[in-house]
Amino acid sequence: QITTLINHKDKPKRSDKTLQAIQRVGQAVNLAVGRFVTVGEAIANENHELKEEMSVACIEARRAGETIAQLTDVASLDHPESDSHITIFTDKTGVVKAARLLLSSVTKVLVLADRIVIKQIITSRNKVLATMEQLEKVSSFQEFVQIFSQFGNEMVEFAHLTGDRQNDLKDEKKKARMAASRAVLEKCTMMLLTASKTCLRHPDCESARINKDGVFHRMRLALEQVIDIVTDSRPNGENEMSPISIYSGIKEFKNKVEGLRENLYFLSKENLSTMLEVILEHTEDFTDSAYTSHEHREHILELSKQAKMELEQLVSVWMQAQNQKTKDLMEDLEVAILKTCQCMNELKREVHSAATSLAADLLKYHTDHMVLKALKITGVEGNLEAVAEYTCKLSEQKDQLVEMCRLLRHVSGTEPLEITCIHAEDTFQVTGPQIISAAETLALHPSSKIAKENLEVFCEAWESQLSDMSLLLREINDVFEGRRGEKRVYLSLPRPGKHNANLKALKPVKLDTEEQAKIAKLGLELHLLTSDVDSETEKWEDQENEIVQHGQGMSSMAYSMYLFTRGEGLLKTTQDLFHQAEIFATEGTKLASALHAFSDQVHEDDKPLLLLEAEKLISMCKQLQITAKASAQGKSATFTKVDACILKTRNVMTLLCQLLPLCFKLLRKNKAGNGCLKPAPPWKEDRIRTGTNAHTPERRVETFGIKSLENHVTNMTFLESK
């Protein structure tokens, strides 16, 4: 709008339409500034340390907006150029000055607001770090549960802030780094839980301590990485983290070579030779690799030799052309340029083929996860010798996958995919030893359910990373084949599928960034609430109690809905989600009935509160059922319904987190007062197990906050369409 005002052409005659248009633009600018400044002033009031600076910038912006509105108030004037009324026509310099003041003050407000956001993220990170330190030092289960609950809430806050920041980043490289760091934090949150529990159960076990320390160390590194990105500081290891790849080297080399057509003197032959040497040094990662096929190795060596020869020929013709620009020499130069670029293209194609074929073979070979299965079995058997044998095999597998990631990085094609490859390499490098320490702990304590569960969590992280690699490989092939524009949908909103004869197959819906961020935040909150519910249910001695059973069932279903927000799990389409929401609401209604029955066994003073909470639960479940059954047509309506279902499920789970400790407290109070409660009715026979995850997984008395293997946290993908 400002540009329109500044650039308008001065004409001798101005129509009423032109004058009205100028006035509308001026008013629109002023209104926009007013709305913008209102937000800035609200931010200033909430952040006293920057209030003065922000207020000054807001006043300047408002004044500039009003000046522009006054100077463009020309539609009602008979003679806009008259000296009695200063307008854009009599004082265009004034408009320019006002525009400059407006832009500078708006920029100042944005910079100050950005500083506040950065401060919020750093403050949130510091809270997480402080709570992590407390978690490391705890010595009792009860204390750990309390602190972990606080930790979960702080992680949700941190996820909200960093998720918004990630969406605001314009640099795709930073975006990918942020996504990788946030993925580590999400996975490690669950790893921290099981590793800490194992350490608390087996405090003298060295392998359990090593396992836990590894998780804490990785989380701290990820937290620091987030702050480095947010504050735009350069970590010490960044140069090491992202060395030049073969793809980017070839691209830059070709640009320089083709630039000789326009300018024969813009670079030296030494520069060009050095660039080729660097590229050929990187090809040694392929030729020296034990996993590169003999055929690929020979082709890469031949093409490397040919590239040197083509460059020598190019330099020879180039030097001659610098001395004498004849037609024949320029034609020879063009041929040399074409042959050099063609050779580099063939080299690029060969290393791509070598890396992607190796990756495809390895991923196919390791899909059965035989080594992980063997580690679980031998660990439970307490067979230390067999565990040692399979840990060696896992180390070999880790080396293969790490090498695969290094080679894929060279051919990834874009910086975000390069970073994803580096992150995958780091994940395999770190997770491998963690699986080994978890397996050793289980072998030393074969009857420990916590140790078994901990091993399952780390094995699942390994499996999910392998799954991520398949997606990454497809993305790399897309870039190579020029299909980068066809961004895939990674969230289930919805995916193709049929549910009965009357339903047409659902078409995949692509979510924009804001939708993805919103659904991911709700999903993470739901995820952490399921852990809280599990922590509460596992405090109960009687795991067959009806309240516990319904609570566990609801937690299991809520977890499957969380997986849906990640495009994972057994819920594949939005219809699956809506059906699951209905079953979840039904289970909640059954829990409310159980609470009514339980209220007959508590003291009269406690009964009203319990019944009030039960009524709240019934009301919320009815609302969820109505939402889940409502029809929705089109992408926007479908997303709104998905969002509403997950939001209402989260609200029910929040209430459940309050109900379970209340019931547990009343149960203990009554036991202390009466010796025992009246026997509970045989509700168990009434339980209906329906739906994808409506069954209650086998519970562990020994554990207190985690589900079985299929209900553990799975991988967070990093391709930034997620």
TrEMBL record:
Keyword presence, Transferase: no
GO molecular function: actin filament binding
Location in or out of the cell: Cytoplasm
Predominant place of localization: cytoplasm
InterPro entries in alphabetical order: Alpha-catenin/vinculin-like_sf, CTNNAL1, Vinculin/catenin
GO cellular component assignments: cytoplasm
Any single biological process term in GO: cell adhesion
Coiled-coil intervals: none
A Pfam family reported for this protein in Swiss-Prot or TrEMBL: Vinculin
Keywords: Cytoplasm
Origin superkingdom: Eukaryota
Gene3D superfamilies linked to this entry: Alpha-catenin/vinculin-like
Record-stated family: Belongs to the vinculin/alpha-catenin family.
Protein name: Alpha-catulin
Source species of the chain: Sclerurus mexicanus (tawny-throated leaftosser)
